[in-house]
Design a protein that fits this description.
about 120 residues; alpha+beta; Thiol Ester Dehydrase, Chain A
């Protein structure tokens, strides 16, 4: 996905605010889930963030665009799945690297649910 820094994304230092990077991480993660998960699984489950680890190596200013890539580096652990996201500028330089831990929640019960092989398979291919 690509993201372009708008006026509301810019902080008082003149670049994209840290909270915006987190919002963009969530957007690409949700898009990945919605694209690759079976409809029945999307209806049954939802993901919540339990941890972010973010390395900021650069920034962008108003009007600049970044490309984002996301992937699942390894299989799940119980209800949790780690997802990595990398943001690059137009020259391909890494600006932000992140690893986010997501937990799977059963929508009906509101409780943690184990990430089964069926759920994980499309994301590990």
């Amino acid at each position: 996905m690509t993201f372009t820094a708008g006026a509301d994304d810019i902080d008082e230092l003149g670049h994209v605010n840290n909270a915006v990077w987190v919002r963009w991480m969530e957007r690409i993660a949700v898009a990945h889930w919605e694209c690759d998960a079976a409809p029945a699984l999307r209806d049954r489950y939802i993901w919540v963030v339990t941890r972010h680890e973010i390395d900021y190596r650069g920034n962008v200013t108003l009007g600049e665009t970044v490309s984002a890539e996301t992937f699942i580096p390894e299989g799940p652990t119980g209800a949790r799945f780690d997802r990595c996201t990398t943001f690059r500028n137009a020259q391909g330089r890494v600006l932000v690297d992140a690893r986010t831990t997501w937990a799977l929640i059963n929508r009906a019960s509101g409780r943690l649910a184990r990430v089964t092989a069926e759920i994980a398979a499309p994301f590990l291919a």
